[in-house]
Specification:
- The structure is a single chain.
- By secondary structure, the protein is mainly α.
- It has eleven helices and no strands.
- Helix 9 crosses helix 11.
């Protein structure tokens, strides 16, 4: 694959893979500790409504998907702040409605033949410079937010009632986690697609959780593991001419299987 590094689209794919992996490692950790894994899939599929609207109105796809995903996250935050045990119900509803809106808008777009595969399974080889700018900016925002408010986010994630008693604005941080999760899901769609985004946000985190003692260590380690899986998946897809997103997830799943066997062998 060394000779392929001379191609700009390969360089963009590698940079995008690393940026998205680091963001997914941090946000994936928050999703797991907050028990919001279903959230990732819900927002990913709901963002298809933004994709459909962007196509219909001629807007940038990333902008439309991000706007719709953030609105979905704000709606979920408002509905579930005091009813977190019902979050699956609301996410399932938003999941279905978002997909339906996207399909309808694409149907209404005259003469547009959308490539559904690029949204379902990712199109990392089609990443543009503007996409990289968006990914880099989002990663920087995530790092700054988590670093500056780490103790507050930690408290809200593990014990929101205790955080509220300490005077921490639980609504703000709960909403912040959901919005950052929504934006991370959108950029992850570019890498692995709607169908596989949950795996990218959870497999590296599961491994990192077993090897970490703190949330901060888990975020860092899961980001590095995710980046390793992404690079290995890109190499695998390039070598055997396979879909990049699916290859990344298969490498991740195989690595998880080996990790579980190793843990079982040591126990």
């Amino acid at each position: 694959m060394i000779e392929a590094l001379h191609f700009t689209f390969i360089q963009h794919a590698l940079i995008a893979g690393i940026l998205v992996s680091l963001a997914a490692g941090i946000i994936g950790s928050l999703i797991v500790v907050n028990r919001m894994v279903f959230l990732a899939g819900g927002i990913a599929h709901a963002s298809y409504g933004g994709i459909g609207m962007a196509v219909y109105f001629g807007m940038p796809i990333f902008f439309g998907a991000s706007l719709f995903a953030v609105l979905a996250a704000l709606l979920v935050a408002n509905l579930t702040l005091h009813k977190r045990h019902r979050i699956d119900t609301f996410i399932g509803l938003i999941w279905a409605v978002g997909m339906a809106i996207g399909v309808v808008f694409i149907d209404l777009t005259p003469g547009y033949n959308v490539d559904l595969m690029s949204y379902l399974f990712g199109s990392i080889l089609a990443v543009s410079t503007q996409d990289l700018d968006f990914m880099g900016g989002l990663l920087l925002l995530i790092i700054l937010a988590v670093t500056f408010w780490y103790r507050h986010i930690l408290a809200v994630s593990y014990d929101s009632e205790y955080a509220k008693l300490r005077g921490i604005p639980v609504r703000f941080f709960y909403t912040l986690i959901l919005v950052l999760s929504a934006l991370t899901v959108v950029i992850a769609i570019k890498v692995v697609g709607l169908v596989l985004v949950i795996a990218m946000l959870t497999i590296p985190v599961y491994i990192a959780e077993k090897l970490s003692n703190t949330l901060w260590h888990m975020m860092i380690l899961s980001g590095l593991i995710s980046a390793l899986f992404t690079l290995a998946g890109l190499w695998f897809s390039y070598t055997y001419n396979l879909t990049s997103g699916a290859s990344i997830i298969l490498v991740s799943a195989a690595s998880l299987g080996l990790f579980l066997l190793f843990c079982k062998g040591r126990s």
